[in-house]
Model the fold of this input.
Amino acid sequence: MRVLYFTRDYTPHDHRFLSALAATPHEIYALRLERRGMQREDRPLPPQVTQIPWRGGQKPACWRDYPALLRDLNRVLREVQPDVIHAGPVPTVALLAAFSRRRCPLVSMSWGSDLLMDTARSRWDRWCARAALQRSGALLADCQAVANAAAALGFPRERMVLFPWGVDLTHFHPGAADDLRERRGWQDAFVLLSVRSWEPIYGV
Done:
């Protein structure tokens, strides 16, 4: 099976998904919508993943770029002939895939803020998300709040898959902090560890 993984930029999350897909027997292709300011991931793609050169992925994308991007996406899809397209965020990347000419299953993936924040900005953003979801066979969501937002846009819950990110227990596990508490004098303190990046969108 040929899987086209279509994402907005290249982040550690994309690397994790592509590494997992690379471990399957499927042919994996990667497509990047844009290249934004700060580079968030510098590890190369897994060698089993084929990066597709195309019109996108070189600079930030704006709505006026979408007609030309859609034309080139149709060319890519003719050449790659994917059996399934995995695309997200929903109102941007999945929207492009949803309006492509290639008729194969579309699995949309919400990155959280796309359905929880972006769709609250305007009717246009809500329309884009709803249009992408209407043409999606399934939705991957990382929490119940995202699932609720998709349901509010009319997407059926029985076609949603929830995958909470979770914690890597080889690095963080109960009991490991006792020695650290003692060294820091925190035995009676309430300690909160935040591993979230301190970008404004997260409100840390």
Q: What stands out?
A: The radius of gyration is 19 Å. The beta strands are 2-7, 27-32, 49-51, 84-88, 106-109, 138-141, 160-162. The first strand starts at residue 2 and ends at 7. The chain has a mean pLDDT of 90.
